[in-house]
Amino acid sequence: MLLRVDTVTGPLGLLEPAAFWLGTERITVLDIVDRWPAADYTYFKVSTNDQASYILRHDSRQDCWELTLFKSPGQAV
């Protein structure tokens, strides 16, 4: 799912998600729990104001963000 993401520049000078939009709902990123680079993407595991966990994928070449995982509050891993 492609996303509209509000970003900030992180401590390493790279874009990091600050918030993203699911339809008309703005989800605020409270914490970047983890991040890891892959060959063509950077992944961000984030905790949010809706108490869910998400993994967002950023393609810096195309400046495109995608939602790759959603875990609702209380859902087992």
Structure notes:
- This protein is mainly beta.
- It has one domain (2-71).
- Helices cover 0% and strands 66% of the residues.
- The protein contains no helices and six strands.
Architecture blueprint of SSEs:
Blueprint: E1 2-9, E2 15-22, E3 25-37, E4 42-48, E5 53-59, E6 64-71
Antiparallel strand pairs: 1-2, 1-6, 2-3, 3-4, 4-5, 5-6
Concise summary:
The chain has about 80 residues and is mainly beta. The chain has no helices and 6 strands. It has a 6-stranded antiparallel barrel.
**Estimated structural class:** mainly beta
Give the helix tally.
0
What string gives the helices and strands in order?
EEEEEE
Total domains: 1
Which value, in Å, is the CA radius of gyration?
12 Å
User: Biggest sheet, open or closed, and with what strands and sense?
Assistant: 6 strands, antiparallel, barrel
Helical coverage, percent range: under 10%
Distance between the termini: 21 Å
- What general outline do the C-alpha atoms trace? globular
Tell me the total number of β-strands: 6
Characteristic key phrases:
77 residues; six-stranded antiparallel barrel
